[in-house]
């Protein structure tokens, strides 16, 4: 089992689209995948055509219960989800009040290690407890970042957090920094991508281009490759899924 955390302290970077696309494509390739939605917006379930539920809240708060009762099928072979909703924000208050250790989420997910090849953790664009524990739980961390001038703050924050976690014993690896919403025409997008490459060098992955289908697919309760298997966004996420398999 590999835990893959998708995280950035800035919103609007494509975390949920990336989580869903990777998990879906890997499940198509025969891997057993579970998505856990730790974002209080609960968009993963909606994007899959499902109903929001307090699954993430229950998994985090009711740790003595069987974790399986919060898992839901997505209607797609080998792809399950523990959905979330706004109660996840309350779970964050609880785990902070109980002073849970950084390893809390990792210990929770170890119960499922024989059942899934990959567990994907979608996180909220915020600091406060759940995201940090989700990052600490990761075998592989993927950081989507929009190719715009204001994207550097969230990226800098999480890289600083990551550095501290390494000092605290984090044993995972950075899968990479994923440029998203890339547009070859505006100067801003090209400039930002070049700056990312200069600053983070080999950690920068091939970008995901800006595409209307990335908004249309979740609105229809479908994954990108289900809406258009030949679309450039599908091909780009397919290449990223291949990279993930090779890296892990």
Q: Quick gist of this model?
A:
The protein is an alpha/beta fold. Helices cover 43% and strands 16% of the residues.
Walkthrough of the structure:
- The chain has 248 residues and is α/β, with parallel strands linked by helices.
- Helices cover 43% and strands 16% of the residues.
- The chain contains 11 helices and 7 strands.
- It has helices spanning 15-28, 43-47, 55-61, 88-97, 104-109, 130-137, 152-167, 187-200, 213-219, 224-227, 232-247; strands spanning 2-6, 33-37, 72-76, 79-82, 118-122, 140-146, 173-180.
- Strand 6 (140-146), helix 7 (152-167) and strand 7 form a beta-alpha-beta unit.
Strand order of the largest sheet: 3-4-2-5-1-6-7
Measured between the Cα atoms of the first and last residue, the distance is 10 Å
CATH fourth-tier homologous superfamily? P-loop containing nucleotide triphosphate hydrolases
Strand content: 15-25%
Q: Please describe the biggest sheet, giving its number of strands, its sense, and whether it closes into a barrel.
A: 7 strands, mixed
- At CATH level 3, the topology is Rossmann fold
Report the C-alpha radius of gyration, rounded.
17 Å
Q: H/E order of the elements?
A: EHEHHEEHHEHEHEHHHH
Corresponding CATH architecture? 3-Layer(aba) Sandwich
| Uncertain spans | none
Give the CATH class.
Alpha Beta
Shape: globular
The domain count comes to: 1
